[in-house]
């Protein structure tokens, strides 16, 4: 499976475009706003991006366009934004996650999870999932992977969160979730997992220790998509992705009572979101952990990165990504560096090489 290894150079386009919306207190003097710091061209049909635990490397999986180019993993130096290598991988890679010294790649081809050595990109174990994977999250101790699965063509294989022992390379459990699951989010403690079920208008709450469903949040007519759990685990954000709704609404859920305690319209289409985990200075205002939302989405059909103040429910800064694209552009994934100095947004240019955009964040 690792028969081909090749290196390539890539041009980095530097762009410093920033559009900032002043916060409630009206400061406009600080330069502490996000800026696009570069673009990296990646092979055709990229699907996901991951950052190494030390923040030094980026991994992008690409479905390719068989027979040329083949499905691959592109390894990028996060400091220079230069491609180190591109290595062939399994058919249909849909997600990639860094887990300690391992790299996990979820593959629809073969319905498997590859456990790889992150340094050498050699395959250590192949885990048979028996179902089509969609997304992967990893426990804080990096010993468990939780693979969200649509199920399979057979009606006997239902949508589930598949629990994998990474060291042994074995499936240890399957927890049933709702119809057409879209996203999975893990609390920082790792004790709870949340799955948004677009097709059944619900969120499944899973006790990861017992590996059982703890509760199901019925959202009525709301079709949930992206999820984010705040650092202390007390709040869950749920992005509404109802078909035909031009401006989705973000709901705030109390994770103890599972009541919807708030909601707001961010004024943009949200594709991915994550809480800030560090104290941040933006536009001369210092924000404590968990009060900002880092968002990748679209404004007027253009890819954008934004920072939302959850206390005032206002967009503090929004910047267009300005990624070069010769075809229709589709958002695929985004990742935040461990120190939160950078975000990486992955876009697909249909029929052409994709683009990874680096966004330098306020410190």
If you had to describe this structure to a student in words, what would you say it looks like?
There is one protein chain. The protein is mainly beta and 363 residues long. The chain is built from no helices and 32 strands. Strands 1-7-6-5-4 form a 5-stranded antiparallel sheet, with no helix packed on it. The protein has a 5-stranded antiparallel sheet with strand order 2-29-28-27-24, with no helix packed on it. A 4-stranded antiparallel sheet has the order 3-32-31-30, with no helix packed on it. Strand 22 (250-254) and strand 23 form a beta hairpin.
List keywords for this structure.
363 residues; five-stranded antiparallel sheet; disordered N terminus
Report the β-strand fraction as a percent range: over 45%
- Specify the biggest β-sheet: 5 strands, antiparallel
Assign the structural class, choosing from mainly alpha, mainly beta, alpha/beta, alpha+beta, or little secondary structure: mainly beta
| Low-pLDDT runs | 1-31
Share of residues in helices: under 10%
The shape, in one word, is: globular
Rg calc: 20 Å
Instruction: Give a count of the beta strands, DSSP E runs of length 2 or more.
Output: 32
Mean pLDDT: 87
Strand order of the largest sheet: 1-7-6-5-4
Distance between the termini: 41 Å
User: What is the count of DSSP helices, taking H or I runs of 4+ residues?
Assistant: 0
């Amino acid at each position: 499976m690792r028969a081909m290894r090749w290196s390539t150079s890539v041009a980095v386009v530097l762009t410093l475009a920033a559009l900032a919306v002043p916060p409630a207190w009206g400061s406009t003097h600080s330069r502490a706003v996000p800026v696009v710091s570069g673009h990296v061209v990646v092979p055709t049909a990229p699907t996901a991006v991951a950052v190494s635990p030390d923040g030094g490397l980026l991994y992008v999986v690409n479905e390719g366009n068989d027979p040329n180019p083949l499905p691959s993993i592109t390894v990028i130096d996060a400091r220079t934004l230069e491609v180190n290598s591109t290595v062939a991988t399994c058919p249909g890679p849909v997600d990639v996650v860094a887990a300690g010294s391992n790299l996990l790649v979820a593959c629809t081809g073969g319905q498997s999870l590859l456990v790889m050595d992150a340094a050498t990109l050699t395959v250590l174990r192949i885990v048979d999932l028996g179902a089509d994977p969609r997304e992967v999250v990893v426990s804080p101790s990096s010993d468990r992977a939780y693979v969200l699965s649509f199920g399979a063509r057979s009606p006997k294989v239902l949508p589930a969160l598949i629990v994998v022992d990474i060291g042994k390379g074995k499936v240890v459990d399957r927890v049933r979730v709702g119809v057409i699951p879209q996203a999975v989010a893990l609390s920082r403690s790792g004790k709870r997992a949340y799955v948004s079920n677009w097709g059944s208008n619900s969120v499944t709450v899973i006790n990861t220790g017992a590996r059982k469903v703890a509760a199901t949040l019925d959202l009525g007519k709301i079709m949930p998509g992206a999820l984010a759990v705040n650092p202390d685990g007390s709040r869950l954000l749920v992005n509404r992705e109802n078909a035909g709704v031009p401006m989705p609404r973000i709901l705030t859920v109390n994770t103890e009572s599972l009541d919807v305690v708030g909601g707001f319209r961010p004024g943009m289409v949200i594709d991915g979101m994550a809480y800030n985990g560090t104290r941040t200075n933006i536009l001369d205002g210092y924000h404590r952990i968990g009060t900002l939302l880092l968002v990748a989405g679209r404004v007027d059909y253009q890819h954008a990165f934004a920072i939302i103040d959850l206390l005032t429910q206002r967009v503090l800064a929004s910047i267009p990504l300005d990624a070069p694209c010769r075809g229709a552009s589709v958002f695929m994934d985004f990742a935040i560096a461990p120190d939160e100095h950078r975000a990486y947004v992955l876009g697909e240019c249909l029929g052409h090489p994709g683009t990874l955009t680096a966004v330098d964040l306020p410190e």
